[in-house]
Amino acid sequence: MAPFRNPDAPSLLLVDDDTVFRERLARAFRERGFEVATAGSVEEGLAVAQHESPELAVVDLRMPGRGGLELVRELRALDASTRIIVLTGYGSIATAVDAVRLGALNYIPKPADVDDLLAALARGLGEPSPMVAEAFQAPSLARAEWEHIQRVLADCEGNISEAARRLGLHRRSLQRKLQKYPPAQ
Q: Which SMART domains does this UniProt record tie to the protein (predicted)?
């Protein structure tokens, strides 16, 4: 059974290990007329793409096992015309550059909704997006610092001493920063 059955609808492959997030996005894309196939891992995504190559793919960067950048590379090898957007909760400039070098059209941070993804696709193609009214507001420096600290702390599985070492901070300084409320966007 082919994952994409409607030849008139744009086909989209959505690969994310977060089941709730993946299904919410899939439903939103279906409501906008896309034919959507979903996968929870790189291997599942490749199996779908090998069966029938999608026109568009939304790929999570971090998944258990092989990562999203590997999937970007393999999707581009299967079909160079597949337009790929990388989606992640752990954004950095280095990984954004890597994703684009591997062939992704764009790279956007989580949380993102279908309108954010359609806008990223339009920006990646250099087209204006009539479907989305874009009003991007960059986070404040304090907010960006707070989010970075939270990502590093999550990578260290909550170990404050290890997170402080990776951040180049004294443990007590990090503890003081963590006691503050997150800054406004």
A: REC
